Amino acid sequence: MDEDEVERRRQQEKGKDKVQWIDMYAKCGSLEDAISAFENMRFKDAQAWSTIIVACAIHGQGPKAMSVF
């Protein structure tokens, strides 16, 4: 495994942790913190996008979900 592969895998693991934070913030009622965590992610995969869109929808912020997208 070369250095690039190691870095890519490390970033993926960090991304999974961030997605969990986004989900937790949304479920605890803090959409602003969820969006902040999402915006601070360096690499956003499909799971991150899905989580933030669902977070906005849960809080009745459909237009905000579209603006984040």
From TrEMBL:
Keywords: Repeat. GO terms for molecular function: RNA binding. Gene3D superfamilies: Tetratricopeptide repeat domain (1.25.40.10). Pfam families: PPR. One of its GO terms (biological process) is RNA modification. This is Pentatricopeptide repeat-containing protein. It comes from the Eukaryota.
